[in-house]
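Q: My labmate handed me this sequence with no annotations at all. I'd like to see what the chain might look like in three dimensions before we decide whether it's worth expressing. Could you predict it?
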Amino acid sequence: MPFLYEQLDTLREFGSYTEIPPYIQENVNQRFELRPYQIGAFENFITYFENEKMCRKPTQTLFHMATGSGKTMIMAGLMLYLYKKGYRNFLFFVNLSNIVNKTRENFLNALSSKYLFADEIRLNGERVQIKEVSNFQYSDDDAINICFTTTQGLHSDMWTAKENALSDDDFANKKVVFISDEAHHLNVDTKALAKNKDEQDNYKSWEYTVRRIFEMNKDNVLLEFTATCDIHNPQIRAEYESKIVYDYPLSKFRADGYSKEIKTLRSDVSVMERAIQAIMLSQYRLKVFQDNRLSVKPVVLFKAAKIADSNAFMEDFIDTVKNLTGDELRRVSELTDNETLGEAYAYFEKNGISFEQLAQELRDDFSAEHCISANDDKEAAARQIALNSLEDATNPYRAVFEVKKLDEGWDVLNLFDIVRLYETRQSSGKRISPATISEAQLIGRGARYCPFQIDDEQEKYKRKYDTDIDNPLRICEELYYHCQNDSRYIGELNNALREIGVDIENKTVRTYVLKDTFKADSLYREGFVFTNDRVEKSRNDVDGLLPSVREHIYAVKLSTGSSGEDTIFGAGNALTEKAVATYTYRTDIQTIADMNYAIVHKALCKYSVFKFNTLKSYFPNLKSTREFITSPNYLGAIKIEITSKYETPTPSILFSACVNVLGKVAESVSDIEITYVGTTEFKPTRISEMFKDKKCNYTIVHDGGLGYSQNDASVPNGWKIDLSKEDWFAFEDNFGTSEEKAFVAYFKSFIPHLKEKYDKVFLVRNERQLHIYSFDGGERFEPDYLLFLHKQNDAGYEQLQVFIEPKGTHLIADDKWKEDFLLEIEDKAVTTKIFVDDNKYKIWGFHFFNTDVRMNEFKKDMERL
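A: Here is what I predict for the chain of 865 residues:
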């Protein structure tokens, strides 16, 4: 049986889902931008809740979402939605009191930096208050009434009469929304073996208590949230197959770039020396943030096995830091040859920060006043607010000491280093020990991304420097786990990380090294490379969608009916297969303008952003909805390729395809804040300042392709070249895609002809070192190669700069706007010089290079040279 979220995904494919209502986004804190997966979670729940055939009563759903993905934001938004549906009473419960206190702050304290709601909540045209209540006997019918409790406290209240506490009366005649955080603790009984009827009747467990009061009213709603639902357990899967309304595990969260990257820093040093390495690295990270005018204070967590050990180490650490000297830091810096630590030490030296100055900074920043313990129950409760507001500018703490108190419910974004204070392995045999699993979960919790932006082109809440290894800000997107250099322990830790969804990818680092001969050439030392800027465009001048949106082929796969049957153990234990005859048809690509207008218009009505008044605010020159649908400047030129089980798509298939595609367009339109254009003026920068040696991070995909040397044995015949011996290629080697390698090999054949006409010919690989902006839309583009051609004349020299982009066949249509831009450059680009000289500069762009469909065009481009 498919999971509930899989059934909802199918509905989404057919456009049969409910869009998130605007009032949710309007009434949550505007500082917290809703992410696409959060919007998906809202829409899945609302679609399920409003589907009378699908939704069970009372309604129980589970949101299986990664730590750090913003589950409390989902809770807040669903409170608003369910209030609109007539619910007034909300019961929040979780197993730990510190999580209750943290959530209370997030829901009630408008002064908290993590407050989730808008300053003023308005629903149904009325202002709505949020009130904390101890029970629902006298709840306010015009307010969101929230009762906060622990799971144990709820269990105790329901079985022991107490004044002002919750009782059966609170649930007998009222519909209630139950919100269970860390819900994997709630289903402990579900994991257990089935009990007989008498045992079930008498067993008053937490799960039984919640189940009993939840089922008192058929209109009750139970919203469960967890990052660790054990769906591989047969009992758990059977219980939750029909209840997991949204699935967004840590593996997908990390792959989408919403977490820090995780690294282990292993060293054969003492625990205290490891701690000193960590605080030096933390101080380096602090300075990188400061260099980029970012107010982020990195925090270090010291993880002990026992409370006594943690307390003793904290005391020892404070004393060690108090007496820290430059000589001690120098000694520790010489203990290991770790590359990351080496970068930190090189930074200090380059910026004139001596070890003695660094010691003084560390004595100040990691003094006793900046250290906090989370071990003692009373101490943890008293300091919970401080521990959950470590990002605040007024929060003084840089070091946290703990054992287990922060393993769950701890929301911290600026944790960048975790130091393991013990050197034992606790596994036995093939099983991963619970302690190591707990460490992996803590790492997963610490991997929450610390959002920052250097410019408005960047996505604030995602990693930006995965492939840009040389960028100093990469260290600000990484979490380091400092531990002993024990291969068996590291292997166990990696296995534990895989179990929670943090698999170590098959990545390799390659370095593009500029040739000494190129660096010695006057073109590199004194020559210029030209790039343009983008400038804001008045909304009154906007007359269409971005080219990347409107000039795109959207592939939609609907209702293919594909299936199959396998016989795993047939005669002779051979694998046999019984095929079920199915047929799928791919329609000819058609534009929206060519489709039935009524179908498109009906699909358009699914999205509020396509209401004409709203569209007019984004596109002031738009005259009608018909123009929006039919004009090539808007939807008209958008192409759809449908795969379905129908040779001729039915109207319902066409409608579903339109809904699918228009959903993507709606996201693009909703994201519009400022519109840009690329300038036609191209300004010079010294080539030597733009292009340097560059490290790149590649995920190895297949032999001979991305990440492989062009001289590798796996590169196809005809493309294999030892570029270190080719004076026209600026770098020692090329590690690009197969299409790039094909281009470089093809380009080589023109070298003799080019050298007859030009005295200098250099092809330079652009690995995210240079970018330009499209004239129409101001969209950023990083062409893969730049060709520099140089010719002396009587007055000086002529220089031709050519942008070249090899492109895989499957991307030709989707990236058409890039090719259009390249072909406009020759006519529109105007070079400006920072000083007057008599040299002549020209800038060109070529057709895409593609061995399947662009060879004739590209050959003509080359022959023009």
